[in-house]
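Fill-in record for NIPSNAP family protein.
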Amino acid sequence: MIIEQRTYTLKPGTVQPFLALYQSDGLDVQAEALGNLVGYFVTETGELNRVVQLWGFETFEDRLQRRRALSQSEAWRAFLTKAGSYVIEQRSELLMPAPFSPIR
């Protein structure tokens, strides 16, 4: 398994509105396409105004196929139009498990 960690830096004061919009308009669409939401987090220390998503994929090819399907979704594109005004920066990292990781 690989984990994709997506970190979004949001405009100050918009974390709660972003989370509400994501929960109402984005979560179900994204979860249906990507399949394995490992976790969804908000930063409390360090760099603030960030949300972090962790998505699990069987392989890199699985991730590509699922991301492609998500990008073709009309509902997802509508969500992005609404959510885009909150986002300052987006970062994506693919994490590979160490041999002893409990998540394999």
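KEY FINDING: Strands lie at 2-10, 37-42, 50-57, 87-95.
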